[in-house]
Amino acid sequence: MDIVLVPGFWLDASSWDAVTPPLVEAGHRVHPLTLPGLDSRDAPRAGIGLRDHIDFVAAQVDALDGDVVLVGHSGGGAVIHGVADVRPDRLARNVYVDSGPPAEGQAINEELPADGDDIPLPPWDEFMEMDLVDLDEHLRADFIARAIPQPKAVATEGITLGDDRRLDVPATIICCEFPSQVLRDAIEAGEPWVSELARVRQVEYVDLPTGHWPQFTRPVELSRLIVEALERH
């Protein structure tokens, strides 16, 4: 199976380096991506929005033969859901890593402080404690060394959805910061932030207790959960 790995904010393809080998060993073809504007700290980011990231990943799907599995971490979850909207017939499964599908018009995060067209990685004290679980000093230093400013418009541009067939793409939600029961309870309560997830017709929930960046803090376990999700289906 072709697995396309879509990173979250401030990260490029190398953020999946510790996750990729077990996926390859399991027999999959793995394609970690660097999204537009994340090539380097000096890359131009003006005018790059969420639709550009969606179109970029859709083009990667088009370049592959057969069904594709998309894995999206954090903000990458919005990207892979956007691809499900434009390529619903090409996707075997979407795997959301500490993320989920946004609803029509929803932005990823409009509150992150920007510097012009860039959103730099904020200081650690601006994150919630649950974000940073297991992210020790060594991992934090590595994160800072690799962090690339996020294009502002990717975070603030509301997603545009138009094809309800996206809801037929099976989804696996890997829950890290809080247990999957929180999502189930929110859906049961009709919370707006899970309204799109509630509409997806085939969803499974998997728990991986750690912070927001399991590709750094629990890479082997994350790889195993992805492999197991594909084996189950």
Automatic annotation (TrEMBL):
Transmembrane segments: none annotated. Residues 3-222 form the AB hydrolase-1 domain. It holds the Pfam family Abhydrolase_6. GO terms for molecular function: catalytic activity. PANTHER family: AB HYDROLASE-1 DOMAIN-CONTAINING PROTEIN-RELATED (PTHR37017), ESTERASE_LIPASE_THIOESTERASE DOMAIN-CONTAINING PROTEIN (PTHR37017:SF11). This is Pimeloyl-ACP methyl ester carboxylesterase.
